[in-house]
Amino acid sequence: MRILVCVKQLLEPETPLCIDESGRWVNISQTTPRQMNRFDEYALEQALVIREQTPDTTVDAISAGPESCSTVVRRALGMGADHGIHLLTGDQGYVSPIRTASCIALAARSRKYDLILAGVMSEDMAQGLVGPMVAEMLSLPCATSCIFVRVELAKASVYVEREIEGGRRQALELDLPALVSIQSGINKPRYPSLSNIMRANRQKLEVISTVAAEPSRSCEDLLHLSYPRKTRAGVLLEGTRKDKARQLLRVFRERSLLH
Amino acid sequence: METTVAVVAEHRLGLVNPVTYEAIACALEILRIRPSRLVTITIGEDSEEAGRQIAAKTGSQVLALKVPGLEEFNGDAYRTILAGLLAELEPAWVCIPGTSQGLDFSPGLAVRLGQCCISNVERVVERDGEPAFARSLFNGKIVAELSSLIAKTLLMVQPGAFSAVFTGSHSPGVVETRTIEWKSTHIRSLGFRIAQSADSALAEASVIVSAGRGVGSKENLDLVRRVASLFSKSTIAGSRPLCDLGWLPYQLQVGQTGATVTPDLYLACGISGAQQHLAGMGGSKFIVAVNTDPNAAIFNVADVGVVDDLEGFLSDLLEESNACSHK
């Protein structure tokens, strides 16, 4: 079977962020460290597990974004994906999820994947929109936030369990081809292996420029960015570490939390 | 023609999920900016029963779509049924609880209807006489305001962000029922199961010392445990990323996909403060945050904050506490 995994590159979560002069995005330099979206690592790992269990399976990884995104596609190859696709966009700043989904759907349509996997959301935007939007654009059945996935080739279906609130799971059977978004914790994502990294460095990525064929519709406008307002006092304790420890213990006692 | 704001309710076996009232609270804020007709939609076998409760509590007009055989949520059913109904009602805004259910059917529905889709809406603001919507980005470090470029928008409402206070001073809304046939096609429901319910210690504790990925190593969890043991009726807990690492069982996870807690003290250790976590602990009576990152979003919801190395600070806290108790 043919599997496609959507991966996204993002800034390391600890990166200090500063709103830029336009007020509509943050300052990002070329040297700002980047990494693969954590949720996508789980999706890719799941694809690799399915490949181990299912004969004649190939795993493609796809990412839409500027030049820098090629490293996240290479990382996917390093983890074990067979083929990497980079949808090269000229996008800067906020990118509408409908645009990213349109780019991925356009590239995926002709390739006849049996299963498309995506992380449940990205860590930076936390929207959870691109995966299910791709599914709708390709008229595929879709299940989100899956914490268990089992392909049943004989029935041309996939059995999934969606993680829902209150510690419950919803069990579903989807006809293939389908799109499944993966919740974190479903597996333990592997680290890239040395042999795969060497292969990834030799291997050519398939680069598709989306600038010409670009489906450019955006449905929403990012008006401006701001820093969050405080909803509580947020008094920062000051002094040496020991001073702060003593102050905090005093606060606990004053509130009768400690005796 | 008067514009319409619709709410898609969340309910199961005749019980209304309280997030529904939060979505209605969001809709009422839109109504304040753009006076409109409010309609709440319920879907499924139990739509009338759920609809009556909502109409009584909020005064909202309710459209109950009775779907024989649809006892549980099914994304395919919701997309198909709502695509038909929304094309007819033409609401300018649809407020949907941003739960695992809302996040499952809404994005596809927006694509199908060619509508704008904004998820995790935390606030409604007025910009040039029109509603715009605020949501968090980058683990809560930045807030973005988004507005729709097209006339119709689906909004997924962040659980816990809107307070649903409804007084009894209204007459119950009218409940209109329609029966709709639907047959499952490419997605078949195979029921539900309990995977892990939250540890009862979380609900019982008056002090929760909670760890995030910022604890750095599994060994440091021992410090967190020892800090917790300073308090009576306490427990440790963790954020989702910490549980994903396998350092704590999911039964001790606090957040949108874990337990919702309201202890007397929530001591957040190395937790960044993403919306998904705040949804589970924002109602705690007193919140103390310890983090190395002075810009971590958790400080915005904390009563008291400590910017410091976690391992060092917790060690000092234990040491000072010992020193005091021996005086």
UniProtKB/TrEMBL annotation, chain A:
It comes from Desulfomonile tiedjei. This is Electron transfer flavoprotein subunit beta/FixA family protein. GO terms for molecular function: electron transfer activity. InterPro entries: ET-Flavoprotein_bsu_CS, ETF_a/b_N, ETF_b, ETF_beta_N, Rossmann-like_a/b/a_fold. Pfam families: ETF (PF01012). Belongs to the ETF beta-subunit/FixA family. Residues 24-217 form the Electron transfer flavoprotein alpha/beta-subunit N-terminal domain. Keywords: Electron transport, Transport.
UniProtKB/TrEMBL annotation, chain B:
Keywords: Electron transport, FAD, Flavoprotein, Transport. InterPro entries: DHS-like_NAD/FAD-binding_dom, ETF_a/b_N, ETF_a/FixB, ETF_asu_C, Rossmann-like_a/b/a_fold. Its cofactor is FAD. One of its GO terms (biological process) is fatty acid beta-oxidation using acyl-CoA dehydrogenase. It holds the Pfam family ETF_alpha. Signal peptide: none annotated. FAD binds at residues 213, 239-240, 253-257, 270-277, 291. GO terms for molecular function: electron transfer activity; flavin adenine dinucleotide binding. The keyword Electron transport applies. Belongs to the ETF alpha-subunit/FixB family. This is Electron transfer flavoprotein subunit alpha/FixB family protein.
